[in-house]
Amino acid sequence: MKVYKFGGASVKDAAGIRNLSNIVSKSEDNLVIVVSAFGKTTNSLQNVLKLWLAGEEAYKIFLDEIYKYHLSVSAELFTDLKTADKIDIYFDRLRVYLQSKRKGLYDFEYDQIVSYGEIWSTIIVAEYLKTVFSDVEWIDIRENLITDGRFRDANVLWNESSGRLLQKIDFKKNRIYVTQGFIAGTVAGQTTTLGREGSDYSAAILANILDAECVMVWKDVPGIMNSDPKWLDDAQKLDEISYREAVEMTFSGAKVIHPKTIKPLHNKNIALYVRSFLNPAEQGTVIKSDATLKKILPVYIKKEDQILISILPKDFSFVIGDNLSRIFHSFMVHGIKVNLVEASAISLDVCVDDERPKVDALIADLKTEFSVVYNENVEMLSVRHYTSESIARITSGREILLEQRTRSTVRFVVRQI
Ligand code: ASP
Ligand code: MG
Question: Which ligand sits nearest to residue 200's alpha carbon?
């Protein structure tokens, strides 16, 4: 069996869903199809959440827009109202939830509310595929992919999930299963999410558990490029890369796939294909164990909206040692991922995503024991397989606040000047 994953851009309208169906029709394999929310629905739902939490009734206007969007896609695809009725049930459920007015913690409410995007999208996709193929089943992944209760960044409970999924997905009953990316559930039945853009990770988890032959991620780019074409205009497609290369790239901030995607695939040696849903006959990029870089190109990665935090012990003691474990414990407690660390005798520089208010809470916490200074609005630039020209190219016109080199990668924390 294979796992196909379609992101929001591929299912933003009725034409996208017809295109998805065409891509599926080219395959005779058993398939699990993982789908994200339509277009920018996750962002729109985040907005609804924000207004609702602030007690602003205007959330209803925005929710209604999302509702009309889904109805119009469904009206274009179906002649009867069966699918619209199904969608209605879940919109009503969310409306009732929002009216109940018992507001819990942000991360918890986020998952209960924002997760609906994937429910609506997959209902419409599955209903459409049922009009084309005879053996399609929709699965509510919240009952089958089980996580702990760390809302917005849930950890998969592998044994529990694998027991349920292997029972639920039976290719003797159906050839095509359609389910949601990004979302999951706890044993107690509460909805969780795996982090923004987490549908790739969902696809990888399912592939691992179901022993897939491969995962195909269908995107609006030709494959994985050696830089973001919106940043550097001579971006080139990489035909194949190793798991290691892919992990390093996503860790440095390459947005092409979610960073957590690689590990479950590597562990079972499952190849990941990144292909264009606009040109499905083209080859794309494959990530696999025995990949060879045919020609070594520098790979450029930019991570924006960073904050560089410098932590110094107040008493001039060395930062390494006890201090180090205390400092990183704080990062963990506040749920902040470290993108780069550089230590000297009495100072530790750490670059992280500028996620407020989490970062403010971390800084306040660190300040109880250390001196803390920080630079906001900085970028982290990385070049893998760097050359002197490639470095000059990306650092010119920027003030370098920090530089770190290994044999294969150079990283800069920079500010525009
Ligand atoms: N819909 C979610 C998001 O936009 C998950 C995903 O697209 O992977 O973050
Ligand atoms: Mg998305």
Answer: 1
